[in-house]
Amino acid sequence: MRKSAVRRPVMAIAMLLGALLLPLSSVLWVPGGLVADLVRRRWRMPIVRLLAFLTCWAWLEVCGIVAAIALWATRRTHRTDLYYRIQEWWCRSVVRSLSVCVGMKFTIDGADNVGDGPFVVLARHVSLADAVMSSWVIGTLMKKNPRYVLKNELKMDPCLDIFGHLLPNYFVDRQSSNVSIELQGIQQMATNLGVNDAAVIFPEGSRANDVKRKRALHALAERSPVRYERLQNLRHLLPPKPAGASALLQSVAGANVITVAHSGLEGLDSLSAILKNFGKHVVQVRVSLKWHERSTVPSGEAFVAWLDEQWLRMDAIVHSQINASAQ
């Protein structure tokens, strides 16, 4: 559904139906889920927990849609500050729902005292929750207004679709054959980035997993042997794609850089993987942010080497975090 006039009402109605049907049918899925979890010896009850979270999420989607309609009806569509506050509340509420319903725990390091921006944020990408989690960290903990480079597919989420277009984000068409247009869109997204703003991009371009890592490294070995030599020992992250990050930095000459490594969300990219991970243990999400003064970030080919160096450092952090959580 490429046309917003079709996609938005269809997805909004679907979300409203889900928000109504999930609570009404809880008399069925709560006992049914409990039985299914017990039969499979999943003592943390992942089916029930996941359905409880989906119920909260559906209602948060409905609340976000209603808020957008209310601002439109009261002719306050120019109030970008209000859209940011709604986005901050929405992301914070999703994170709280994950904590309450699923038992997900968050530990954040480096989000306080970051100073004034503007910032370009280069973040790891491993799960469906990365954008929401990072928006919560940037908006609620760092007190900055995040704008995102997002993939087109996320338009299927009504709130991300509506607020993603009301705020200065850019939805990348990953199937586009015209890379220059996409890079131009990324640069335009960062136009007028202020001291309280942060432009966020996921340089890996796709959710990381073992299969994608092997494929990406194989392609890198053929395309750029020098970079392959640097990155061949990556264990958790994908080789970063420097073009989008470089475009952002060129667009905002004075922006400092924040790199974001995190662990705990690995494998949460499909229903079966989510149930498997939620059923085994408490999901401990550890987030580590590092601030880089702009004068220490080179440009051109030197930037590619710098970015690779940061990705190797982040990979080591993630490896350490995963080992700590396993103990």
Which percent bin holds the helix content? Answer: 55-70%
The first-to-last residue Cα distance is 45 Å
Task: Supply Rg.
Answer: 20 Å
Strand fraction: 5-15%
Secondary structural class? alpha/beta
CATH architecture name: 3-Layer(aba) Sandwich
Number of helices: 12
Low-confidence stretches: none
Number of distinct beta strands: 7
Sequence of secondary-structure elements: HHHHEEHEHEHEHHHEHEH
Under CATH, the topology can be stated as: Glycerol-3-phosphate (1)-acyltransferase
Shape: globular
Which features characterize this protein?
327 residues; alpha/beta; Glycerol-3-phosphate (1)-acyltransferase; 7-stranded mixed β-sheet
Write a brief caption for the model.
The protein has helices spanning 4-24, 26-39, 46-73, 80-102, 130-141, 158-166, 179-189, 210-223, 225-231, 242-251, 271-280, 301-326; strands spanning 105-109, 119-123, 145-151, 170-172, 197-201, 256-263, 284-292. With 327 residues, the chain is an alpha/beta fold. Helix 6 (158-166) links the parallel strand 3 (145-151) and strand 4.
